[in-house]
Amino acid sequence: MTDKLTDRTALEQLLDGGWKLDKNGDALTKTFLFADFITAFGWMTRVAIHAEKMNHHPEWENVYRRVRVALTTHDAGGLSALDVTLARKMDEEAGRS
Ligand SMILES: C[C@H](O)[C@H](O)[C@H]1CNC2=NC(N)=NC(=O)C2=N1
Q1: What are the extents of the domains in the chain?
Q2: Is 8 exposed, middle or buried (0-12, 13-18, 19+ CB in 10 A)?
Q3: Which of 28, 50, 57, 61 is most exposed, with minimal Cβ within 10 Å?
């Protein structure tokens, strides 16, 4: 089992950075908009490598240059520190796109 998130400061930072909580507070969501499809897909590829290394995987959908993301930890039945780490990686990689 993975522990539930207790770091409220980290969560606040993500909310300030455009992440939202879903209605149950169980998932972090964000919509990323890129210049075009290939930039979106390149970002997804880089994030996928991080996710695989972490063994922590996003729920996401891509339509053309937009990627909608939801992060949650099934193991914890809500948010964990892994979601915070992956959210930060996504923001960091989007800054390189
Ligand atoms: C067996 C394996 O460790 C689990 O299924 C992992 C894989 N990826 C995962 N990803 C996410 N987002 N939440 C999980 O609880 C999770 N669990």
Answers
A1: 9-95
A2: exposed
A3: 61
